[in-house]
Amino acid sequence: MNEQIEKAKTTTITINRTEYPFEDASQSGESLKRRAGIALSDVLFLEKPGEDRVIGNDDRVRLQDGQVYYSQPPANYGHTVNADTTGFEGVTKSLTQPGGWNFLILEEFPLPAAYRPPSTSVLVKLPPTFPDAQPDMFWVRPAVTLANGAAPNGTSTERLLGEDWQRFSWHLQPGAWKPGISTLRDYIRCVRARFAKGD
Questions:
Q1: DSSP string of 90-151?
Q2: Which domain holds residue 129?
Q3: Domain check: are 61 and 93 in the same one?
Q4: Residue 158: which residues within 8 A CB-CB, separation 6 or more?
Q5: Would the pTM of this model clear 0.70, i.e. be above it?
Q6: Boundary-marking domain end, from 52, 72, 92
Q7: Domain final residue, candidates 72, 105, 132
Q8: Are residues 181 and 157 part of one domain?
Q9: Which of 6, 37, 76, 112 is the most buried (most CB within 10 A)?
Q10: What is the pLDDT of residues 85-140, one digit of tens each?
Q11: Computed from CA positions of residues 132, 49, 165, 157, in that sequence, does the dihedral angle turn out positive or negative?
Protein backbone atom coordinates (compact mmCIF):
# COMPACT_ATOMS: atom_id res chain seq x y z
CA MET A 1 0.00 0.00 0.00
CA ASN A 2 2.72 2.46 1.01
CA GLU A 3 4.70 1.48 -2.08
CA GLN A 4 1.69 2.32 -4.27
CA ILE A 5 1.39 5.73 -2.59
CA GLU A 6 5.09 6.40 -3.20
CA LYS A 7 4.74 5.44 -6.87
CA ALA A 8 1.78 7.75 -7.24
CA LYS A 9 3.91 10.64 -6.00
CA THR A 10 6.61 10.00 -8.61
CA THR A 11 6.45 11.94 -11.88
CA THR A 12 8.26 10.41 -14.84
CA ILE A 13 9.44 12.53 -17.77
CA THR A 14 11.73 11.91 -20.72
CA ILE A 15 14.87 13.97 -21.28
CA ASN A 16 16.87 13.28 -24.44
CA ARG A 17 15.09 9.92 -24.88
CA THR A 18 15.84 8.70 -21.35
CA GLU A 19 13.14 8.42 -18.67
CA TYR A 20 13.72 10.08 -15.30
CA PRO A 21 11.44 9.74 -12.26
CA PHE A 22 11.11 12.77 -9.94
CA GLU A 23 9.65 12.72 -6.46
CA ASP A 24 9.26 16.50 -6.52
CA ALA A 25 7.22 17.70 -9.51
CA SER A 26 8.48 21.27 -9.11
CA GLN A 27 11.87 21.61 -10.81
CA SER A 28 14.09 24.27 -12.36
CA GLY A 29 15.72 24.11 -15.76
CA GLU A 30 19.06 23.78 -13.98
CA SER A 31 17.93 20.84 -11.85
CA LEU A 32 16.61 19.03 -14.93
CA LYS A 33 19.89 19.56 -16.76
CA ARG A 34 21.93 18.35 -13.79
CA ARG A 35 19.78 15.23 -13.42
CA ALA A 36 20.24 14.37 -17.11
CA GLY A 37 23.93 15.30 -17.24
CA ILE A 38 23.35 18.21 -19.64
CA ALA A 39 25.77 21.16 -19.78
CA LEU A 40 24.22 24.23 -18.16
CA SER A 41 25.17 26.25 -21.25
CA ASP A 42 22.97 24.06 -23.47
CA VAL A 43 19.39 25.04 -24.30
CA LEU A 44 16.61 22.92 -22.78
CA PHE A 45 13.27 22.56 -24.57
CA LEU A 46 9.89 21.20 -23.51
CA GLU A 47 8.05 19.65 -26.45
CA LYS A 48 4.76 21.48 -27.02
CA PRO A 49 2.23 21.48 -29.88
CA GLY A 50 3.34 24.08 -32.41
CA GLU A 51 6.55 25.57 -31.03
CA ASP A 52 8.52 23.98 -28.21
CA ARG A 53 9.12 25.97 -25.02
CA VAL A 54 12.59 27.00 -23.91
CA ILE A 55 13.25 26.26 -20.24
CA GLY A 56 15.85 28.62 -18.81
CA ASN A 57 18.13 27.51 -16.00
CA ASP A 58 16.20 29.64 -13.49
CA ASP A 59 12.74 28.84 -14.87
CA ARG A 60 10.47 26.73 -12.65
CA VAL A 61 8.37 24.03 -14.28
CA ARG A 62 5.64 21.76 -12.94
CA LEU A 63 6.47 18.29 -14.22
CA GLN A 64 3.72 16.10 -15.62
CA ASP A 65 3.95 12.41 -16.44
CA GLY A 66 4.87 11.83 -20.06
CA GLN A 67 6.42 15.24 -20.72
CA VAL A 68 9.28 15.17 -23.20
CA TYR A 69 12.32 17.45 -22.90
CA TYR A 70 15.36 17.66 -25.12
CA SER A 71 18.50 19.77 -25.23
CA GLN A 72 20.92 21.09 -27.79
CA PRO A 73 23.98 23.29 -27.67
CA PRO A 74 23.31 27.02 -27.98
CA ALA A 75 22.99 27.93 -31.61
CA ASN A 76 26.16 29.48 -32.94
CA TYR A 77 26.34 31.10 -36.33
CA GLY A 78 29.28 32.36 -38.36
CA HIS A 79 29.68 33.82 -41.80
CA THR A 80 32.03 31.36 -43.48
CA VAL A 81 30.06 29.11 -45.80
CA ASN A 82 31.72 25.80 -46.55
CA ALA A 83 31.47 22.15 -45.57
CA ASP A 84 34.08 22.48 -42.83
CA THR A 85 32.14 25.13 -40.91
CA THR A 86 28.85 23.21 -41.17
CA GLY A 87 30.30 19.94 -39.98
CA PHE A 88 28.81 18.26 -43.06
CA GLU A 89 30.96 16.52 -45.65
CA GLY A 90 28.53 16.57 -48.59
CA VAL A 91 28.67 18.91 -51.57
CA THR A 92 27.96 22.48 -50.45
CA LYS A 93 26.79 25.37 -52.64
CA SER A 94 26.56 29.02 -51.74
CA LEU A 95 24.31 31.13 -54.00
CA THR A 96 24.20 34.94 -53.69
CA GLN A 97 20.66 36.32 -53.95
CA PRO A 98 19.17 39.82 -54.46
CA GLY A 99 19.07 42.03 -51.38
CA GLY A 100 22.21 40.57 -49.85
CA TRP A 101 20.73 37.15 -49.07
CA ASN A 102 22.84 34.03 -49.43
CA PHE A 103 21.37 30.56 -49.99
CA LEU A 104 23.42 27.67 -48.63
CA ILE A 105 22.61 24.25 -50.10
CA LEU A 106 23.87 21.04 -48.51
CA GLU A 107 23.46 18.17 -50.94
CA GLU A 108 23.11 14.50 -50.01
CA PHE A 109 22.16 15.47 -46.47
CA PRO A 110 21.58 12.15 -44.61
CA LEU A 111 18.22 11.69 -42.87
CA PRO A 112 17.22 9.49 -39.92
CA ALA A 113 15.39 6.22 -40.60
CA ALA A 114 12.06 7.92 -39.81
CA TYR A 115 12.13 9.65 -43.23
CA ARG A 116 12.02 8.79 -46.92
CA PRO A 117 14.18 9.16 -48.99
CA PRO A 118 17.34 8.44 -46.97
CA SER A 119 18.93 11.76 -48.03
CA THR A 120 17.94 15.10 -49.53
CA SER A 121 19.32 18.56 -50.28
CA VAL A 122 18.88 21.11 -47.49
CA LEU A 123 18.66 24.84 -48.23
CA VAL A 124 19.28 27.47 -45.54
CA LYS A 125 18.68 31.19 -46.17
CA LEU A 126 21.33 33.42 -44.65
CA PRO A 127 19.98 36.97 -44.17
CA PRO A 128 21.91 40.06 -45.31
CA THR A 129 23.12 40.91 -41.80
CA PHE A 130 24.13 37.33 -40.98
CA PRO A 131 25.66 36.41 -38.56
CA ASP A 132 24.06 39.17 -36.47
CA ALA A 133 20.65 38.18 -37.84
CA GLN A 134 19.66 34.57 -37.36
CA PRO A 135 18.54 32.18 -40.10
CA ASP A 136 14.95 30.99 -39.93
CA MET A 137 13.41 27.72 -41.15
CA PHE A 138 14.95 25.46 -43.81
CA TRP A 139 13.93 23.85 -47.10
CA VAL A 140 14.55 20.43 -48.63
CA ARG A 141 14.49 18.98 -52.14
CA PRO A 142 13.31 16.41 -52.98
CA ALA A 143 10.46 16.61 -50.48
CA VAL A 144 10.62 14.10 -47.66
CA THR A 145 7.90 12.03 -46.04
CA LEU A 146 7.73 10.07 -42.84
CA ALA A 147 8.19 6.31 -43.13
CA ASN A 148 4.37 5.92 -43.10
CA GLY A 149 4.04 8.23 -46.12
CA ALA A 150 2.72 11.26 -44.21
CA ALA A 151 4.21 14.73 -44.60
CA PRO A 152 6.32 15.91 -41.63
CA ASN A 153 4.71 18.42 -39.28
CA GLY A 154 4.91 22.07 -40.28
CA THR A 155 5.84 21.52 -43.92
CA SER A 156 4.59 23.13 -47.12
CA THR A 157 5.78 23.72 -50.70
CA GLU A 158 7.57 26.90 -51.77
CA ARG A 159 9.08 27.88 -55.12
CA LEU A 160 12.78 28.77 -54.81
CA LEU A 161 15.49 28.99 -57.47
CA GLY A 162 12.94 27.96 -60.10
CA GLU A 163 12.12 24.68 -58.33
CA ASP A 164 9.67 23.39 -55.72
CA TRP A 165 11.19 23.02 -52.27
CA GLN A 166 9.57 21.61 -49.14
CA ARG A 167 9.66 24.22 -46.39
CA PHE A 168 10.00 23.24 -42.74
CA SER A 169 8.30 26.05 -40.78
CA TRP A 170 10.61 25.63 -37.84
CA HIS A 171 11.92 28.49 -35.73
CA LEU A 172 14.63 28.93 -33.14
CA GLN A 173 13.48 29.76 -29.65
CA PRO A 174 14.76 32.56 -27.41
CA GLY A 175 18.03 31.52 -25.85
CA ALA A 176 19.07 29.42 -28.84
CA TRP A 177 20.64 32.35 -30.70
CA LYS A 178 23.72 34.31 -29.66
CA PRO A 179 24.70 36.94 -32.22
CA GLY A 180 28.38 37.57 -32.69
CA ILE A 181 29.69 34.41 -31.02
CA SER A 182 28.26 31.77 -33.31
CA THR A 183 29.23 29.47 -36.16
CA LEU A 184 27.07 28.02 -38.89
CA ARG A 185 27.92 24.53 -37.64
CA ASP A 186 25.40 24.77 -34.81
CA TYR A 187 22.57 25.94 -37.02
CA ILE A 188 23.04 22.78 -39.06
CA ARG A 189 23.11 20.88 -35.77
CA CYS A 190 19.73 22.44 -34.98
CA VAL A 191 18.43 21.29 -38.38
CA ARG A 192 19.63 17.80 -37.53
CA ALA A 193 17.85 18.05 -34.17
CA ARG A 194 14.59 18.89 -35.97
CA PHE A 195 14.94 15.81 -38.15
CA ALA A 196 15.80 13.72 -35.08
CA LYS A 197 12.30 14.39 -33.73
CA GLY A 198 10.99 12.07 -36.45
CA ASP A 199 7.67 13.85 -36.92
A1: S-EEEEE-GGG-EEEEEEEEE--TTEESSEEEEEEEEPTTTTTSPP--EEEES--EETTSPP
A2: 83-196
A3: no
A4: 139, 164, 165, 166, 167
A5: no
A6: 72
A7: 72
A8: yes
A9: 76
A10: 444 555 578 888 888 888 999 988 999 999 999 999 999 998 888 878 888 889 99
A11: negative
